[in-house]
């Protein structure tokens, strides 16, 4: 490989690893968001061991990706073969882990769906409107997705407070503003004035599945894009590693 090609490869790999470092920070941030977020659909699933494990995996992968990006930058700019080889190995392991995780999620999709259903049904049954974390997060989901219950509004008939009340009540966040009824409230249980509750008819499972289907192309595109970038990084690192005849550690800054 000519000196000009080596220089281009070296700096291109450096920029690639800089982007990889940023992507790693984003992945770690996403994992932290899943772990600590209290105001979205993820917060509803905070009791799920699967979600917690997934968040820890994302944090770990993000941290490893950041470290790998850093060492890749150093290895590329100073042409250190051992760091380039380590970078290639880590990148290969991450790619294998990603493919394995995707296969496991696909195989376990039905158990995951069942676990999610059990968690949300339990939340609806015990809903009181006083819990400011999971219950308010579920209210936010129903309000923004314009849905009611998990499979439908009938899930709310199992709620303990509604069953024990002498009045007809419904979930305030299910309120359909196109129908006549009480004033709009963001959370809690509202008094039903008409024979039929003024709520959305569609269950939230349908809304979630619709969102996933609508965004399936974007999610798949991101996954394929990341895999292509990883393969490109592996190719560039190997090309540069083979072109380095002898390492010159005097170029590495001393601290």
TrEMBL record:
Sorted alphabetically, which InterPro entries does this protein's record hold? Tetraspanin/Peripherin (IPR018499), Tetraspanin_animals (IPR000301), Tetraspanin_CS (IPR018503), Tetraspanin_EC2_sf (IPR008952)
Q: Which family does it belong to?
A: Belongs to the tetraspanin (TM4SF) family.
Query: What GO cellular-component annotations does this UniProt entry give?
Result: plasma membrane
Membrane topology of the entry: Multi-pass membrane protein
Say yes or no: keyword Transmembrane helix present.
yes
Subcellular localization, as worded in the UniProt entry: Membrane
What are the UniProt keywords, alphabetically?
Membrane, Transmembrane, Transmembrane helix
Instruction: State which residue ranges cross the membrane.
Output: 12-36, 56-78, 85-107, 218-241
Pfam annotation, one family: Tetraspanin
What is the name listed in the Swiss-Prot or TrEMBL entry for this protein?
Tetraspanin
């Amino acid at each position: 490989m000519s000196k000009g090609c080596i220089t281009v490869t070296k700096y291109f790999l450096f920029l690639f690893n800089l982007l990889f470092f940023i992507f790693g920070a984003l992945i770690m941030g996403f994992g932290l968001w899943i772990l600590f977020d209290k105001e979205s659909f993820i917060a509803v699933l905070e009791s799920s061991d699967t979600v917690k494990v997934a968040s820890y995996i994302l944090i770990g992968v993000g941290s490893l990706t950041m470290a790998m990006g850093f060492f890749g930058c150093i290895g590329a700019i100073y042409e250190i073969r051992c760091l380039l080889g380590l970078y290639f190995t880590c990148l290969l392991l991450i790619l294998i882990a990603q493919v394995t995780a995707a296969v496991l999620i696909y195989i376990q999709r039905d158990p995951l769906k069942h676990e999610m259903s059990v968690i949300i049904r339990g939340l609806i049954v015990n809903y009181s409107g006083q819990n400011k974390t999971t219950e308010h997060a579920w209210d936010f989901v129903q309000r923004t997705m314009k849905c009611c219950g998990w499979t439908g509004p009938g899930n709310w008939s199992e709620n303990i407070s509604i069953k024990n009340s002498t009045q007809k009540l419904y979930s305030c966040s299910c309120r359909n503003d196109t129908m006549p009824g009480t004033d709009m409230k963001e959370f809690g249980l509202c008094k039903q004035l008409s024979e039929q509750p003024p709520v959305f008819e569609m269950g939230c499972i349908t809304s979630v599945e619709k969102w996933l289907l609508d965004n399936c192309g974007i999610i798949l595109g991101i996954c394929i894009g990341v895999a292509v970038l990883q393969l490109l990084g592996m190719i560039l690192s190997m090309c540069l590693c083979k072109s380095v005849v002898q390492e010159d550690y005097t170029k590495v800054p001393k601290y």
